[in-house]
Specification:
Strand order of the largest sheet: 1-3-4-5-8
Number of strands: 8
Largest sheet: 5 strands, mixed, barrel
Structural class: alpha+beta
Distance between the termini: 60 Å
Order of helices and strands: HHHHHHHEEHEEEEEEHHHHH
CATH superfamily of the largest domain: LON domain-like
Shape: globular
Number of helices: 13
Helix content: 40-55%
Number of domains: 3
Strand content: 15-25%
């Protein structure tokens, strides 16, 4: 790669991370760079992860200045590292999509998402089986006409290049999460798969072919900050005569699916929700951050797993430097995706970064203690047999 192009790419990546203040925008590619660095130098990832913007800038500059590393095996980490070198513009586009969702309550200047929220009303996706933490990527389905025929076109036809909507997990609640649409794909689903998974038109295993197929849209999204909806209106759905036939599979009758006429809710005014304590990055926060990363590394070592590779495999990416954002990032290690009650509480009912971090520490310490007990029992058992 030509040196001038390399310098231009470095500056572009640096700007996208706000001069190193937000390493999380690099996503799994950033985690792959750190994992590769630690594998080469045999460093502990929890110690090598950056704790301030200057370290992010130093590592980023070193990556672009060094010759392309020797990445012989086909692990995901190495594939992502090769992609940064071979397709930097594609990776940069992904980084810019992550940049849109940045929000730091302690920053004096408005973020891209703050500016976007002031421009257009945001359609609301009401779904009580999904709660995404800030910074988390997820996939779901749009099935109802108000989402496939109203919400999605609003996003795709928007003059802005940013496709934002709100995810509301509790019906009629004023609390929601800003979500950015990353990609979408039209799919067809058999009647019995609605709400479970995307399947093909024919069931090759049983030879059963559904009588009726339903169209939907599979979407990939990333969650952003929490918001409080101050004002919302509705866009009515026109009544249609379309109605699906019921179908049966070996005598089991499925529920008939009628085209919904439920209205689409649109938020006209929202306010970003922030934690009441808003802790700044200080020695106490830094030690808490390091302690949490150290606990995670110890837990993964019990299963012969590596923290760097885990951040790549899970898509968690690099931990944010902002304390509030880091607290949500750390929650992913202790909250299951289907733990709706826990996710709702820590997102919308708890407004304290400190409490969130303390909860993470308690849960991780409990796992470490349980692993220590298992090791002790195994040691005692082996000594008896020995």
């Amino acid at each position: 790669m030509h040196p001038r192009l390399t310098r231009a790419l470095y500056r572009s990546f640096l700007r996208a991370s706000h001069v190193g203040k937000h390493p999380e925008v690099f996503g799994k590619h950033g985690a792959a760079v750190f994992a590769h660095h630690c594998n080469v130098h045999d460093d502990r990832v929890s110690l090598a992860l950056p704790v301030d913007a200057s370290q992010v800038r130093k590592i980023l500059k070193g990556w672009f200045r060094r010759p392309s590393p020797a990445l012989n095996d086909d692990s995901l980490t190495n594939r992502l590292c090769r992609e940064i070198k071979s397709n930097p513009l594609d990776v940069l586009r992904q980084v810019h999509k992550q940049e849109v969702m940045l929000y730091s309550p302690t920053s004096p200047s408005p973020s891209p998402i703050q500016n976007q929220l002031k421009k257009n009303p945001l359609p609301i996706f009401d779904y009580d089986q999904l709660a995404a933490l800030p910074g988390e990527q997820f996939q779901t389905l749009f099935l109802e006409p108000r989402y496939t025929e109203q919400l999605l076109p609003m996003l795709l036809d928007s003059p802005s290049a940013i496709s934002l909507f709100l995810l509301r997990s509790l019906k009629a609640s004023s609390q929601a999460t800003v979500v950015q649409l990353l990609s979408h794909q039209h799919v067809t689903l058999p009647l019995n798969s609605i709400g479970t998974s995307i399947e093909s038109n024919n069931d090759a295993t049983t030879g059963w072919e559904p009588k009726r197929m339903f169209s939907g849209v599979a979407v990939t999204c990333v969650a952003g900050p929490r918001v409080v909806i101050s004002k919302e209106t509705i866009i009515p759905m026109s009544i249609t005569d379309a109605q699906a036939d019921c179908t049966e599979d070996e005598g089991n009758r499925f529920t008939c699916w009628s085209q919904s006429t439920a209205p689409l809710f649109v938020a006209e005014d929202v306010q970003i929700a922030v934690d009441r304590d808003l802790p700044l990055v200080n020695p106490t926060i830094l030690s808490t951050r390091h302690y949490i990363l150290n606990l995670v590394e110890r837990i993964l070592a019990f299963y012969d797993s590596d923290l760097g590779d885990t951040l790549v495999q899970t898509g968690f990416g690099l931990p944010p430097l902002d304390p509030e954002s880091f607290s949500f990032w750390a929650l992913r290690f202790v909250l299951r995706r289907d733990d709706m009650k826990g996710r709702q509480f820590w997102m919308h009912n708890c407004h304290s970064t400190t409490e969130r971090l303390q909860y993470v520490i308690i849960q991780l310490e409990a796992i470490v203690d349980a692993q220590a007990e298992d090791e002790e029992e195994e040691r005692v058992g082996m000594s008896r047999w020995g």
